[in-house]
Amino acid sequence: MSNSIRYGSQHDTPRARFAAAVLLAAFLVSWALPSSTQAQPARSEVMTSQTSAIEFYASNYGEFGVNVATGGAGFFYPRGSHNQYMFGSGLWFGAIKNVNSVPTKLFFLTYNPNSGASWATPGERSDYVSYAPLYNSNDYDLKTGANIKPGTPPYRMQSWPLWLVNGGIKPAPLSPGIFVADTALRKVGALPKSLPAFMPGVQEQMMARFNDADMQQYELRDTAQRVGYPLGLQIQQNIYSWNIGRFQNVVLLQYDIINSSRDTLHDCVVAQASDPDIGNNSNDHVRYYEEAPELRSAYAWTDPEEKKYAALVMTLIEAPTTNDDGFIDNRNRMKYRVEGRIGTFPHWTVEMDPTTLSQRYDFMTMPDFTVDDRASDIRALLASTKFSMKPGDTAHYAMAYIVLDSIPEYGRALYGGEPHRTLAKLPTRSAQLEATVGALLDAYYLKGFDEPSAVPSVWENANGIRIASMPNPARDATVLAFALPQGGDASIRLTDALGRTVMERSLGHLEAGSYRETIDLSALPAGFYMAAVNSGGAVSAMRLIVTK
To answer: Lowest CB count within 10 Å: 129, 268, 493, 516, which one?
Structure first.
């Protein structure tokens, strides 16, 4: 082992110990890989994405964005550039469970940013010793669900696991298909009106199932059962990515978390823990996007480096909705699009890392939106509000990572070299963030990813003015988001297909920066319109579709 990761050396940092641990894990996994005489293959699996502009690593046990084989970062943009944006991430779940009649704070994770550990086990709680692969839609026939990847070993020749049955329609983002555990039933006609379920409009879909049943995977090990484990979690994860349109720089992670135990879990919280490492890992910043709480977003950026890096946005797409009694009510899932909010967004350095079960639970549940722009090696947690789960309940959680080149900080003194006193005059909003997140939310909840309007071309850009609208097509209203390269008198105008002005609004003098304006469309007939932004005589316009 090299001196750089030798335990006890001057390089003995949590990250170095993690690198040593994952290198050892990679060796053990490779040692356990199936030979021609082994009936039981290795169960842990890591796969690299093949399609989107973001190159990322995923596993069948909940770790995302980490390259286990090298002990290094596993999230790069653009593909093939080796420009890293994240060292790793994974699901965190906290709950209060009655253990011997005592309410006890418990916690489960699929990624520990210090040790690299995942407590999850691939597969089903009822059968957690069998092989459970990480499925990739690129390996399957979209009509039959059959594995078509050349050279696939026999133990991987399973059909696609998600199916439409009993006359189900094509999957919507809120329901990606029904998991069929019996591999013999994964064929057309084996179940009533069954067809394989692939997410329409998604260029690459990865699917895995894992659970918390094998407590030897926990860092607690032999003490886990004594303190009240397992919680009884069965988790299904879908990862969606695109290679065209606005979403080519987006990766969407969707989780179904099932309480398969006989216990009621109280005051639960679910979150994605992330370790953003943009270029060098010691000079990153992170901030909650408080300007638009309804977008449930935060982002990380780096101090100037030799290479030019963009920003890493973290967005909470969905979390559990509840009844008045605090228990999950999945009949209200659509309400989360507008009413949902982040429960907490703590960000911290390794010195602040919570260690005990109680500390970790409190860390996830205490509201924290502190603005702290100090450069450091930083971690962040995008958490839901509290909910309770009865036996059999399913908690739905989805979040997205987005790489954007436009955030307010890129116009501040940090990059422009301007005096600190000018910060108050500079923009605090990001039109690019708001337009991209808005389009993603529309696609997830309303249109689906196969609708052309859900994956529009990149921003219209003329005379340096960037412009976009969300949603588009729109029915009653749309938000026109735009970014001005310099200050000036500004206005917006809406014209119909014959060039007639149907709406005009003066915005007065605007400084350079990002803005958004809501346009009322309720009185307009259906049709095609042009929305234009004029600033200082420069004009940028885009087509807007109004439906009724």
So the answer is: 129
